[in-house]
Amino acid sequence: MNFNINSYKFLRWIPSGRSFIVGIPYGWLLVFFLVPFIIVLKISLSEAETAIPPYSEVFQYADETIKVILNLGNYLFLLEDDLYLAAYISSLKIAFLSTIFCLLLGYPMAYAMVQASDKWKTILLLSILLPSWTSFLIRVYAWIGILKNNGLINNLLMGLGVIDSPLPMLNTNFAVYVGVVYTYLPFMVLPIYAILTKLDHSLLEASADLGAKPWQTFLKVTLPLSKSGIIAGSMLVFIPVVGEFVIPELLGGPESLMIGKVLWQEFFNNRDWPIAASLAMVMLAILIIPITLFHKYQAKELESQR
Amino acid sequence: MVLLIIYSFNESKLVTVWAGFSAKWYAELFSDRQLMAAVWMSLRIAFMSACMAVVLGTMAAYIMVRYRRFKGKTAFSSMITAPLVMPDVITGLSLLLLFVAMQQSFGWPAGRGMLTIWIAHVTFCTAYVAVIVSSRLREMDTSLEEAAMDLGASPLKTFFLITVPVIAPALLSGWLIAFTLSLDDLVIASFVSGPGATTLPMVVFSSVRLGVSPKINALATLIILIVSLVAFICWWFARKAEIKQRQQL
Lengths: 306, 249
Description:
The complex is a heterodimer. By secondary structure, chain A is mostly helical. Helix content of chain A is 75%, strand content 3%. In chain A, strands 1-2 form a two-stranded antiparallel sheet. In chain A, helix 2 packs antiparallel against helix 14 (273-303) and helix 4 crosses helix 8. By secondary structure, chain B is mainly α. Chain B has eleven helices and no strands. In chain B, helix 4 crosses helix 6 (114-139). The relative contact order of chain B is 0.14. Chains A and B meet through helix 2, helix 4, helix 5, helix 6 and helix 11 of A and helix 1, helix 3, helix 4, helix 5 and helix 6 of B.
């Protein structure tokens, strides 16, 4: 009898199928997504050293005491040097303006897609999806060919006699904007499209029946109902663009200073890991509000339609 | 839309500019050992990452949609959606620092290479798979699963015999997304790779940075052709399967 009870107790410690299923992805994300941030935080508080790995230990164990040495110097250094502040500001500016451009371009596109006939809808959807299936790098690279001094646009304009000398477009902030808006446009269009497809048409009809003009219906019914799509799309564009590295590196010039680029340089060229880590921590702190906003939307999406 | 059309026109234009050099560059492309090694490495990593990401992502989606409440569900759902937006440089840096710390503490993973790139790619691809699969799971009629359970099938059997076939199109598109994401990733791979593990985007990036080479144009053309073809075929099959399924239901 005793044995039975014990074995039941024992059985409770064997993970059930359910906790097993929860455990695997949970554990994976915990180890490879959450823990890394704690380590980044730790390293951002350490001191740069010429060693392998190139940073000092925060926790030092000697004489039976654990010493915690926190070095806030990295963060102070970020404040002192104008370069970093300028990089943050210009990153945020580029991300913000790109989001606006994407929204202005993307909303009409999504709207047109919803209105289109089934056959056209497929074609339009595919033409948005297909480019995003091909390599991102190659698409950015193609823009170099379009924007450079003897590239397509300049040749065209000169051929038409609009301009005499080539417009410098590559290696400017303009090129960065073009690249960013072009690459991130699908991330804006698709969530808005998804929301607009689900829109209840009877509401639009009701609005029209009650005498609203089409633009009034759009402003008072369609736009508020698609709010969550707009938020999701904007966050999907804004947050990654703040940390963008490839586009400013390839299309931008010396003036297009972005935090992703600076972080990369600190890490790979200067090999200053603590500074790179604190740059990442500050970026994360800036992005925490948009990320929570995005998460709230996603959670709502995941919870809805039960 | 207009932008995209102009762009696709431009792209072909760009390629035809160098098409004058004929297939010579393609021959050179294929004889470039280092480049081919990178292609092969990228394909292997992408294949394995996509498989693992689909397994993990499907589990995560199943948890999110079917399990109402459990400890730490909020934390779990944040961890699922956060990689969707997290800037690459942060993810890459933090994972690298994790691997370095792990190697110091218990000697694993020894060095960085394919394994670490694989882990990193699985981590961020899982989020995309989870979102795709969960939207399909939510649309799915649960009465089918309940019927199977009532008829005495175990939850596991029900899952594989009923749920998986129903959500198969979502699994396929999740796999494809993960595959292309992994194939495309430059920043994270650069952070977590070690010497000896170079992926295709890394090769392309360094050669683009150095300047335009006709070889890269040839490569770009090939990638665009292959990817569009594969994507189109897969999309076609997925759509066909979905239509068939709708009719059956």
